[in-house]
Amino acid sequence: MDKKGILDIIQRNSKNHAGIIAILEEIQEECSYLPEEALRLVARETGRPLADIYGVATFYKAFSLKPKGRHCISACLGTACHVRGAQKIVEEFSQELGIKPGETTPDNEITFETVNCLGACALGPIVVSDGHYFANVTARKVGEILRDTREGTFGSDKAEEAHPFLIEVSCPRCGKSLMDSETSVHGHPSILITASMNGKTGWARIPSLYGHFSRTHEHDFPADAIVQLSCPHCASSFQDGSRCVECGAPLATMRLADGSGVFRICTRTGCEGHLLDIGRAEL
Amino acid sequence: MINLTINGLAVSVEDGSTILEAARFLGFPIPTLCHHEGLSPYGACRLCVVEIGEGPGARLVSSCTYPVEEGLKVRTASERVVRARRMIIELLLASCPQSKVIQDLASAHGVRTQRFRQEYDDCILCGLCVRMCSEQMMAGAIGFRGRGEERSIGTPFDVQSDVCRFCGGCMYVCPACQLRCTYNQPEKAVCNACANLAPPCIQKEKYGDMMCYMNPCVACEIK
Ligand code: SF4
Ligand code: SF4
Ligand code: SF4
Ligand code: FES
Ligand code: FES
């Protein structure tokens, strides 16, 4: 991005009385880092001492003064991941890459960073490579992640596959699998269960890619109504008294096939409430 | 005017003054480190702690930043205050034992040992130099950088600042180094430490190995 573009950003933001952080954020978005020249321009144009601007830019971890590599790997060092041994993983990455956290490999291929909590603590230690999440990472998996990252397996498109946890669920009552490998949604086997309302009963389908929530029904159920969700094998209801944090409607609970926890979805049509509760296998 | 009591003595001071100012007006000594008349209060070192309030609600505050309140009851030397103050001095000793200012403080308060891991930091991040530079010298050449463990003082991008006036004001106020170094006139140099380095720090290309707390050193740049 050229000088003019940066001047534009500064002018546009100062017109809205936006602060330094807003300006820096926008520059970083455009350039992917904060070039020295840009910071000097910000200081000159806003009339603030360069020392202040530099202080802000170096204070927040979200800002980077160095260009980022082609691929970006972040290892979580949040409390939960830390107690599960994330430090070892960070050391392993540092050693394999020959760089410290926050640095980029000399060939400009990989930037390695540590972050504080990615909000998936139950699955820690978490590593994210180009937007692809790895759960329960061990030091032994590090080499594999690096190899795949270098080969560009995860692309560098951050938006794609933001929630790549594939889940496999079974009925908490009869234990039969609820997966339907014949019909895939988003390229993965879907979850097939029974839905009924007002005497109409049919199938309901949910993608198994956790986070991509969209339930489809055989029948046209009205929006904002509670649907009874049950097992297609033993017909027992999935409602177990828990409530959706988004809308308060009953949640339907299924068991993760490997017994590691439960998967819950909201029974209200149109509500996107759903959650994964790892480590709570007892129902 | 605001009425308050300090160590049981009633005093009325102007609205907007700090506890520190009121106490000093009455002649009660409160040690300070990051406070400097003529610079805005910053509250970094906590050395100026006093106890306010009574009973279970009593608490420790930094007097240099706490504005006086009507009816406030202040104790400047209660047992709790003295304990906290000595702890702060111990911690300062642990991070910067070579500072004359800190050594003097320790001696004045009878602190002879410290129980923490010994470090030899060049800077205690009191911010005096930064305030000196921007408030008195109107330069704004140096500032805080980074955060947490990596927090440091210096010029942006670690290169010579084009707004620095080379006034030396930052070094003058610094309690950690008190260098006021004039290595460009070696006979006036305070510590001479850098002159004894081979090659002398003034000839170094990288600022990394220098004796001085400033990175890069402003004194060295007075050509
Ligand atoms: S010498 Fe430079 S950095 Fe130090 S106070 Fe003066 S102007 Fe500021
Ligand atoms: S360099 Fe000196 S004056 Fe500046 S913050 Fe550090 S200790 Fe304080
Ligand atoms: S680096 Fe500069 S200020 Fe520091 S001791 Fe050497 S000559 Fe003096
Ligand atoms: S601590 Fe790692 S995801 Fe929360
Ligand atoms: S003198 Fe009050 S906090 Fe330093």
Describe the structure.
Chain B: Its EC number is 1.12.1.3. Chain B: It is an enzyme of class 1 (oxidoreductase). Chain B: Residues 1-80 form the 2Fe-2S ferredoxin-type domain. Chain B: It comes from anaerobic digester metagenome. The complex is a heterodimer of chains A (283) and B (223). Chain A is of the alpha+beta class. Chain A folds into 3 domains: 3-59, no CATH class; 71-162, Glutaredoxin, CATH 3.40.30.10; 169-278, no CATH class. Helices cover 25% and strands 27% of the residues of chain A. Chain A contains 7 helices and 15 strands. Chain A has helices at 3-15, 20-31, 36-46, 50-59, 79-83, 86-97, 142-150, and strands spanning 71-76, 103-104, 110-115, 127-129, 132-134, 169-170, 179-185, 188-197, 200-207, 216-217, 228-230, 239-243, 250-256, 261-266, 274-278. In chain A, strand 8 and strand 9 (200-207) form a beta hairpin. In chain A, helix 3 packs across helix 4. Chain B folds into 2 domains: 2-108, Ubiquitin-like (UB roll) (Roll), CATH 3.10.20.740; 128-209, no CATH class. Chain B has 5 helices and 7 strands. Chain B has helices spanning 19-26, 79-95, 100-108, 128-136, 169-173, and strands at 2-6, 9-13, 49-52, 59-62, 73-75, 143-145, 152-154. The longest helix of chain B is centred in the middle third of the chain and has 17 residues, at 79-95. The relative contact order of chain B is 0.11. Classes of the chains: A alpha+beta (283), B alpha+beta (223). The A-B interface holds A 36, 39, 49-55, 58-59 and B 130, 134, 139-147, 155-157, 161, 163. The structure holds iron/sulfur cluster (3 copies) and FE2/S2 (inorganic) cluster (2 copies). Residues 123-129, 153, 173-176, 213 of chain B line the site of one iron/sulfur cluster.
